[in-house]
Amino acid sequence: MTNKAKLLIVEDEQAILQGLMDVFVFHGYQVDSAMNGKIGLEKALSQNYDLILLDVMLPFIDGFSICNQIREKDLQQPIIMLTAKSSEQDIITGLTLGADDYISKPFSVRELVLRVESVLKRSQQQMEQNAVLSIANMRIDTANLQQLDCKIAQQFTRREIEILHYLQQHDQRPVPREELLEKVWGYRQAENIETRTVDIHIAKLRRKIEADPKQPKFLLTIRGEGYRLLSDASD
Ligand code: CA
Q1: What is the pLDDT of residue 1?
Q2: Cis omega (within 30 of 0) on the bond before 106?
Q3: Which range has the worst mean pLDDT, 1-5, 21-25, 41-45?
Q4: What kind and span of H or E run contains 221?
Q5: Which end of the chain is more exposed for a tag (fewer CB within 10 A), N or C?
Q6: Cα of 82 to ligand 1 centre, how many Å?
Q7: Rounded to 5°, angle at Cα 182 from 34 and 54
Q8: Which listed CATH number (2.40.70.10, 3.40.50.720, 1.10.1660.10, 3.40.50.2300) goes with 6-125?
């Protein structure tokens, strides 16, 4: 499975880049590359890679900043940082910004390939777990957009699943309508008319997941703040 994975390698040293590309192509990966931070960031944000190998010291935009911007866009593809030296501070910075792993230069190619395989395996397991959403006493198969374990399965739309997913990922706080519009719908500027769109979807979702949609116990309105999804019913 992981052998067809698509990698992006961002590295400005030609010899290292070429060596890495050869190795991963040899191991059956699809490989794309960028030799500076600007192109690396553009590619990372516009294309769907399974994993990104990211050098720290890069022309124009450094690897930490790229990692940070990828995570700020809520993109979850695994990132392995290539740190120049085994600088503890670099490692901590990278992991804090959301990198999944790091490897210090000079590294053994064999070890790097193993790291890539293990990070990909973890991310695949994570995706499989995400395939079932457990919400409000029901389990939802997100690939088939329907409730599991019951005779007459409730159906959901792709958008509804995305809303539930986002709220569940951020269930420690209320999520403002504007944030849902930006993260789920991809709108930049929220207008009044568009926040109504969110309310309509929430109302539909409540009819599907709440025993009494007028007295929601899971999908709550927090006045003046937004919507919050609870994993256990509120009283
Ligand atoms: Ca470099």
Answers
A1: 46
A2: yes
A3: 1-5
A4: strand 219-222
A5: C
A6: 9
A7: 20
A8: 3.40.50.2300
Residue pLDDT, tens place only, 44-55: 999 989 999 999
Q: Which token pair is 148?
A: 């599991």
Render pLDDT for 128-164 as a digit per residue (tens, 0 to 9): 777 888 888 899 988 788 898 888 888 998 889 989 9
Residue 5 CA, ligand 1 centroid: distance in Å = 24
How many CB atoms within 10 Å of residue 159?
Answer: 14
- Separation of CA 60 and ligand 1 centre (Å): 11
**Is the model's pLDDT at 85 over the cut of 70?**
no
CATH no., domain 129-229: 1.10.10.10
**Cα-to-centroid distance, 36 and ligand 1 (Å):** 9
CATH 3.40.50.2300 in the chain, residue ranges: 6-125
**pLDDT at residue 2, as a whole number:** 45
First to last CA, the chain: 45
pLDDT at site 201:
92
